[in-house]
Amino acid sequence: MRIELISTGDEVITGSIDDTNASFLSRELIESGLQVSRRHTTGDSLEELMTLFTEVAARRAVVIVTGGLGPTNDDLTTEAAARVAQVPLELNEQWLERMRLWFAQRGRTMAASNLKQAMLPQGALFINNPVGTACGFVLKINQAIFIFAPGVPRELKAMWEQSIKEIVLSFTKDHIPRTHLIRLFLMGIGESNLAERLSALSLPEGITLGDRAIYPLIELKVIGHNASDHDLLSTLNKIMEIVTPFYVCKESYSLLEILSARNLKLAPCNAVDGLCRGWFLIHLQELCTNFISCTVLNTDDSLVSQKDQALGHQLLSQIPERNEITLLPAGYEAMDLGSLNQELHYYVLRFNLDFSEEGAAHNITGKLLFGLKDNLYSTGAYTRNRDFLAYLCTIEIYKALVRENFIIPEECELKVLELHDSRNPS
What we know:
Elements: E1 2-8, H1 10-13, H2 20-31, E2 38-42, H3 46-57, E3 61-66, H4 77-85, E4 89-91, H5 93-105, E5 119-121, E6 125-127, E7 136-141, E8 144-149, H6 153-172, E9 179-187, H7 191-198, E10 207-214, E11 217-225, H8 229-243, E12 247-250, H9 255-261, E13 264-266, E14 269-273, H10 279-283, E15 291-296, H11 306-316, E16 324-329, E17 345-357, E18 360-372, H12 384-401, E19 412-421
Parallel strand pairs: 1-2, 1-3, 3-8, 14-15, 14-16
Antiparallel strand pairs: 4-5, 6-7, 7-8, 9-11, 9-12, 10-11, 13-17, 16-17, 17-18, 18-19
């Protein structure tokens, strides 16, 4: 048995609206351990609907169909299902009464056309819609079990949570192998280089890898289809040995949510972006929910002229050292730049942060030196290079807070000049 999705509607097939229902159902199903085998899209044509239903019904499958259950003439899904199943449409008195109540509660008169929404194929099991007038229904056609739901996303989601999810799980229990999905978020490695490093792995039966780029991250998916827990865990451990230098987090990318789950909260921060023209301040909102001050300091070149340096130090002297985050050219630091690789451009991230973890007060300070091939001063206000560095520095602060290894991107030099954490015994 397999799972297939059918999205109906001229608006969907023409691209007038995005097919968010199929994406939502695919995500929800994989979270429940079920992988979709195929997704279909068709317009509001009775002939096309019947042809597609007939084709899919020839397979042992659970099929979720969305759309075409409204009261208008182009809502043809129910009629198409009844014709393919070779059964008549019958009035469902229970849903008719539910619709009349729905309209009465809103002080409205139910139109005669709404009666169509209570006409279901003979033998169908209706599914309650808690927020709309189009009920869903379950109907077996040939070898497949069809679950029909309205196409309005809000209604579909409500029905999924209330009943459809459990219906799918009950029909697929012991019939469809469960799929486990582990998502790893990486930064600082290209897709081709990642694929080359992972190619040496010998994957157990039922386990596959996939990835997608969501700049500047890569989402690496470890998919176990009817694989044992032992094989899945063993494979994950081997993968982590390869990707640890680039590993950010897993399951979902929301640094604030991860920090919140650890009961870790930063105090209000003072932030200075002296390199990325404000992009660093934007990305810092992944960590900080509030700021005391945010400052963009424009610098003209990586060596920093004496005039710029004096103005910069004057501005920086006015910012409290506690809860301070600064990203500046290395020229602002009292350090010997001559000892560094002259082919690289160097930038310094500093942070001195008060935070609470599990209700206890802590402080962490750090000073990181980044050496990049890219000169951030050679282009306009926005470049992917500035965005990348801003993103990278945000993630490095996050890694320090959760006490994990820093990210070390390919073609990037990283020196930890200073790191003190009050949670670590001296």
